[in-house]
Amino acid sequence: MPRIAVVGAGYWGPNLVRNFQGHKDCTELWVCDQSKARLDQMRTRFPGLKYTESYDEVLKSNVDGVVLATPVSTHYELARRALERGKHVFVEKPLASSAEHAKDLVSRAEAAKRTLMVGHTFLYSPPVLKVKDLIAKGELGRIFFVTTMRVNLGLHQKDVSVIWDLAPHDFSILFYWLGERPSVITATGKAFVVSGIHDVAFISAEFPSGTIAHLEVSWLAPSKLRRTAIVGDKKMAVYDDTEAIEKVKIFDRGVDFKDPETFGEFQLSYRTGDIWSPKLAQSEPLALEAGDFLKAISDGTTPKSDGLMGLRVVEALAAAQKSLEQGGVPIKL
Amino acid sequence: MPRIAVVGAGYWGPNLVRNFQGHKDCTELWVCDQSKARLDQMRTRFPGLKYTESYDEVLKSNVDGVVLATPVSTHYELARRALERGKHVFVEKPLASSAEHAKDLVSRAEAAKRTLMVGHTFLYSPPVLKVKDLIAKGELGRIFFVTTMRVNLGLHQKDVSVIWDLAPHDFSILFYWLGERPSVITATGKAFVVSGIHDVAFISAEFPSGTIAHLEVSWLAPSKLRRTAIVGDKKMAVYDDTEAIEKVKIFDRGVDFKDPETFGEFQLSYRTGDIWSPKLAQSEPLALEAGDFLKAISDGTTPKSDGLMGLRVVEALAAAQKSLEQGGVPIKL
Amino acid sequence: MPRIAVVGAGYWGPNLVRNFQGHKDCTELWVCDQSKARLDQMRTRFPGLKYTESYDEVLKSNVDGVVLATPVSTHYELARRALERGKHVFVEKPLASSAEHAKDLVSRAEAAKRTLMVGHTFLYSPPVLKVKDLIAKGELGRIFFVTTMRVNLGLHQKDVSVIWDLAPHDFSILFYWLGERPSVITATGKAFVVSGIHDVAFISAEFPSGTIAHLEVSWLAPSKLRRTAIVGDKKMAVYDDTEAIEKVKIFDRGVDFKDPETFGEFQLSYRTGDIWSPKLAQSEPLALEAGDFLKAISDGTTPKSDGLMGLRVVEALAAAQKSLEQGGVPIKL
Amino acid sequence: MPRIAVVGAGYWGPNLVRNFQGHKDCTELWVCDQSKARLDQMRTRFPGLKYTESYDEVLKSNVDGVVLATPVSTHYELARRALERGKHVFVEKPLASSAEHAKDLVSRAEAAKRTLMVGHTFLYSPPVLKVKDLIAKGELGRIFFVTTMRVNLGLHQKDVSVIWDLAPHDFSILFYWLGERPSVITATGKAFVVSGIHDVAFISAEFPSGTIAHLEVSWLAPSKLRRTAIVGDKKMAVYDDTEAIEKVKIFDRGVDFKDPETFGEFQLSYRTGDIWSPKLAQSEPLALEAGDFLKAISDGTTPKSDGLMGLRVVEALAAAQKSLEQGGVPIKL
Predict the structure, then answer these.
(1) What percent of chain D is predicted at pLDDT more than 70?
(2) Does B216 have pLDDT greater than 90?
């Protein structure tokens, strides 16, 4: 049964600590942060854990898995060192700040036969799982396209664009659902508030199967939107994370081709049918995610959100950012 | 007081007939269509108008203005001939099927000192007028960007893409609100149902002032969306045409820059305030549009939706279509 | 094939004329109104019908069915005279302004073997039919209760309370769904704007089966609500007529009783499952209603919204009004 | 600076502990519960507080204020004893299970010159405060009526009806807004799931000023509704607690009387104007409530939700329950 160290106790770290602490398979839990003040806060809230200001101490310990909730710019260095010490590594999304670094981590984990997992939490959320299930069972048919909006008046990041901040969610969901990686990415957008930091972006992606996707991400929007439409040739679905109850709706709608009775013109007809909102599981995504890491360490299984997923997401982010900076030129992957 | 002939009594023509017939300034109204059956239908519904199957007869008559509600491919030829006979011309949107034809019509109308008007009806709709007013008065501040969605499970056109079918609405609204034309247009999308006829498109536009815009148009979507967000540096607005009452909402939200007290870092703060949904006029856009054409004929005034607006929209459509067909390459205008 | 006369060409009459005119089984259609001006308007809109200012002429003619769209206060007199002349009679809702008059009309129609039908149009509307179907098939289980709201800033009637104006809709729907009449009715409310004319009312009804119902009707409300909840012991449904698409939703929710493992305490558990919005037919209720009257005349069948339904609605309205005027005292029927 | 003891650490108690603990004016905090297991749980979560299983110990201590979060049936006894020991008392809603007990507590607190406060938390919630402000400033005009719905598939109480469970919220809000107590109450409803425990109720209340109110409370409803409409003769408002952002909306709508130009008929006209959703404060109601109790103890001020408010709510609950049990007969207060 694994011993875990959560590194970084800032905004997101405490959520990871809470979930690993609560998991029956986690025998020992460390919290590591450079700030003594933060450690003290954590100690009050979670008495009974191990606390240290030294990452080296974590690496030298008998901890099995390291969970990195530190700034993106530190991911590569910290993860590499942990892999070198034979630790299994969980990195918060995105995996790294460049495709090269992400690729290097994937190779190192493979070589070291250690689990590399990335914190794409949405892959464990009930509505995302439900849509995956619908697609896998063929209920929606062949997927024509997916559009997604993730916008609201949100916190500007200081060092990365809205693409690196918000699009990791949508790319990971897309790649999970579609089971393929994009071949071309195009992005437009702009930096309105802070020079050089794009706060609005529109991203198009094309996949080898013919499916296309479109992402809108923004820190500047009048109201919060978290809406994804999935259009298949049989049915269509909407996943709206701002809805309290009906987060996933399946529309029995589509275009039918009728056999032309006479030679010549094709015949289209539109089908509109029932709308169905399935009940979703009540499970907490972070708890499932923590469990997936613990299981990977114990059994050697591949976690759903593995290093390869993390790498693909980083490649897509880098391509989108590049297209954006070149005025919307399509970038091949 | 003008005499008017509506040419084309198919899907849209009857709406124009109804509105010109009902207008106090329209002394005489003709209806022209090649199909005798359609004319008979119209005659039953609107007794007391003049009916003819011959466009020549219209051109030879003392009719002052010709209103073309015929297929796009016929616009150029029919409008050119009417201008040659000294008629004022109203053309349903889009003005023509190529920028060259649109430009030629604008030149001819200028040379002939005749009104050339295009049926961009949204320029006469109360919510669009209200947003124009908000922008003109500076209530929203400098406009950062506009995003718009016009999607649902809609009728496929046989000969034109979804861009030519739906984007005329959004481009005309945008150009009217912003008072400028785009410098670059990028579009991605795909033809899923009928080969060669794109049924989904994502269009980005950049304007000289720095404002950007993004349009999503689709005939394949699970539910009807008609939503436009206008983000300014002072306030933000949403225009949602599917709302029964609150079609326009103004959000007193934005990003404020605080004077840094110390040298160095900028300071951002987020402002969220009241939301306000102004009462809109109840006027029928088509009636205002018909009146604008009649007034232009009588007084020589320039209609709001003039030939130049029509030309700019056609240029934008052509650029978007070109980018789409070239895989998303940015097109300069 | 029946000859029909629509009497009263005010607010609602023209809708009836349009639907009878369009029906294939209506061979001849008369329009009768005391106002020559109104008849002239109708003549322009519907050329080819018979027009008269004299109700006597209608009664003397070979017209088979008379459709009364006149003020409620005239219903009894006009309907009685038509039945005396052997005409079939369709009366707009409510059937009469007192239970006595309604009862008398029902008796006379029975004695004369003529159809007496009442214009409770909602009994022909697709969402109401769908809910009836759900109840009839037992999908909702035993019906615990029904609550309904019909409110907005609406036109005050000059001579009748909001109960007589709006509650006929809800009572007719309720009686159709439940297949029974109430045993007790209680109502509270008040006249705020015009003395003596109640503009807000809250009505409770109890049925012999144990089902209860509650109606809120108001001319004074900030926004339009047309919402009915039907709670059964198996499932629950919501019928919301202000929704464009999902007018009916079925919630797989309820309370389950578990067999107590030990003697003693009952065990309740709550079930929340899928939500399902069935596709509804697109038929126009008024066309179905007109067809039902024409069929009743031709075949002698009983229309769905027959005189008995009309009588029960009037009895309920009278009881509610009485309770209201007595400060909410329960009235037995 | 007051010393406080929270008594009862079940469902609600921990929320009170959290808020008193976090308040700067609370010098010492005790937690008292009969269950050692519960105390142990609390001790882990809130280290550093005083814990006891004995209410007597609390009463004998130098604690200034006792906060009762115990079952309703125990309120009277525990509160009475605390007042006898000279403690200030805060009682969770409802104050007592009978009007007699509630009245007795009010008298005792007055005699002992001690604060008696009741936990009607909604009186401290930002949307309720905003509506109070609108009414107080006359923005809505004279209040015609208030309707409120508080329904969903909720937990059945074992010993009290839905009226005693849910209506305390609505009655306290109403009395706070209107500043008066009802003169007559009527209620209908039924016990569907557990015999004798009403799970659905419809309550009408009449106030001396002429305002009326209507409450719908239910544990059996397909979806959660928390909607209150406030209709004044100038404007109308809706308070919807299920809305994330626009919890309060003001509708500039109403009925205007026009001066009749000729003698005779009154003239009504309908006014529909802007809709406005004011920004609400972000304060946590429970923190304000805790502060109000602490301030009352320190300064001798009367808390907003005082014993008299608690008494009036209990009187209304008792009257509604009585009417319900008598089949809807109006009960005078």
Answers:
(1) 97
(2) yes
**Pair C34, C28: CB distance under 8 Å:** no
Burial of C113 (0-12, 13-18, 19+ CB in 10 A): exposed
Give the model's pLDDT for residue A156.
81
Q: Among residues D70, D121, D50, which one has the least CA distance to residue D42?
A: D50
CA D218 to chain centre: 17
Same fold flag, C3-121+285-304 and C123-282+315-332: no
ipTM of the complex: 0.94
Q: What is the pLDDT of residue C45?
A: 83
Mean pLDDT score, B97-123: 98
> In this structure, are residues C105 and C77 in contact, taking their beta carbons and an 8 Å threshold?
no
* CATH class entry, domain C123-282+315-332: alpha beta
Residues of D in contact with A244 (CB under 8 A): 224, 242
Distances, alpha carbon C172 to alpha carbons C176, C248, D159, in Å: 6, 18, 37
pLDDT at C6: 98
Tokens of A254: 């589509």
D279 at A interface, C-beta within 8 A: no
Q: Where are the domains of chain B?
A: 3-121+285-304, 123-282+315-332
Topology of the domain comprising A3-121+285-304? Rossmann fold (3.40.50)
Indicate yes or no: CB of B153 within 8 angstroms of CB of A206: no
Cα–Cα distance, D35 to D30 (Å, whole number): 15
Instruction: Give the model's pLDDT for residue A154.
Output: 85
B159 CA: distance to closest CA in chain A (Å):
13
Q: Is the pLDDT of residue D22 over 90?
A: no
Chain C positions touching B225 (Cβ under 8 A) are: none
C91-111 pLDDT, tens digit per residue, is 999 999 999 999 999 999 999
Burial pattern D197-230, b for ≥16 Cβ within 10 A else e, equals bbbbbbbbbbbeeebbbbbbbbbbbbbbbbbbbb
CA distance C201 to chain D (A): 10
Write out the H or E segment, with its range, that includes residue B188.
strand B184-190
Amino acid (one-letter) located at D242: T
What is the distance between the alpha carbons of residues D193 and C125, in angstroms, rounded to a whole number? 32
Whether D231 has its CB under 8 Å from any CB of chain C: the answer is yes
For residue C104, what is the enclosing H or E element? Answer: helix C99-112
- Partner residue facing D279 (CB), from B245, B272, B279: B272
Residues 6+ apart with CB under 8 A from C107: none
The separation between the first and the last C-alpha atoms of chain C, rounded to the nearest angstrom, is 40
**CA distance to partner chain C, nearest, from residue A252 (Å):** 9
pLDDT tens, residue by residue, D40-85: 999 988 888 999 999 999 999 999 999 999 999 999 999 999 999 9
Alpha-carbon distance of B291 to B22, in angstroms, equals: 10
pLDDT band with cut points at 50, 70 and 90 for residue A262: low
Contact A51, A28 (CB under 8 A): no
Q: By 3-state DSSP, what share of chain C in percent is helix, strand and coil, each rounded to 5?
A: 35, 30, 35
For the segment A63-89, the average pLDDT, to the nearest whole number, is 97
Asked if D199 contacts D193 with a C-beta cutoff of 8 angstroms, the reply is: yes
Task: State whether the Cα torsion D178-D182-D184-D190 is positive or negative.
Answer: positive
Q: Is the pLDDT of residue B102 over 70?
A: yes
pLDDT tens readout for residues B121-147: 999 999 999 999 999 999 999 999 999
- Please choose, from the candidates D114, D37, D98, D32, the residue with its C-alpha nearest in 3D space to the C-alpha of residue D68: D32
D47 vs A: CB within 8 A: yes
Helix (H, G, I), strand (E, B) or coil at C166: helix
Q: Do D194 and C266 touch (CB under 8 A)?
A: yes
Identify the bridge partners of residue C55 per DSSP, sorted by sequence position: none
Partners of D148 in beta bridges? D215, D228
